[in-house]
Predict the structure.
Amino acid sequence: MRYTFLGPAGTFTEQALLSYTGADAPRVPAVSVPAALEMVANGEVDAAMVPIENSVEGGVTATLDAIAQAQDARIIAEVLVPVSFVLVAGEGVTLTDVTTVSTHTHAWAQVRQWAADTLPQVEYLPGSSTAAAALGLIHNESPGYNAAICSPIVAQQNPELQVLAEDIGDNKQAVTRFVLVARNGQIPEPTGADKTTLVIPLPVDRPGALLDLLEQFSTRGINLSRIESRPTGEFLGSYFFSIDVDGHIYDARVRDALRGLHRVSPGIQFLGSYPRADLRHVETPEFHRDDAFDAARNWVESLFPHGRPEHLRHGI
């Protein structure tokens, strides 16, 4: 398979991809998440590794929006990467010389307190990625900043960069979650420790509209591990919900919930069911397990010993 990732080389996203595929897999960096997903849609690559959630900053909005708009996007795997950061600069620059720092917005959010304590007068310049910010110090004669925050790997791979400070993250247990997105790929087999990702537009803005969606999960014993609202861009007040649930589409309770959601919001998108990276098994109450759904369906059908009339055979 051929892969792409949010580049350039040395990003945490490439680290996530390498942990999934190994170093020998063909891979090419993309300049942005939408560009990576476009390469998948066009058949230039088979799958793209992109960041979707951070334990400190929450959902990566650029990814949530891009996946929601992508055609035939299917998440087939997820990877968790512990993140740590270093402050780098070009030769001859000391910590006291630093006036402007560049990095990705999610990285900056994770070192903001350290920067306030150590470099209270420093200005922040957003970068497309942590690696791009660091490499800009080497390849751009006038990058507009004189220091960058990146992963230790970038500093190790580029001896032109000197490390001014190490392990500068405010939260030492910070983790970023990445997903591997393919074009309408095969759904991985259920493992018992699975996650399903959905995009659900709010069809009508009215009291109780969100409750109607959430009840489809609660009445079937499905836990939501993430829910975030994002604007559709169509008009002010138009939103969709990006949701992760515990379970696999092959689970009867999840399939039944999707049927209910489709009735409420026909524009629902199924983005994939895949193994959880943390392998955490979710215990399901007995009355929400597959055999309970099967028994309930069989009992209802038994109420029609001669079968339902042909013109009334709707659904299952």
Summary: The two ends are 39 Å apart (CA to CA). Residues 68 and 199 are 6 Å apart (CA to CA). The mean pLDDT is 91. The domain at 187-316 is CATH 3.30.70.260 (Alpha-Beta Plaits).
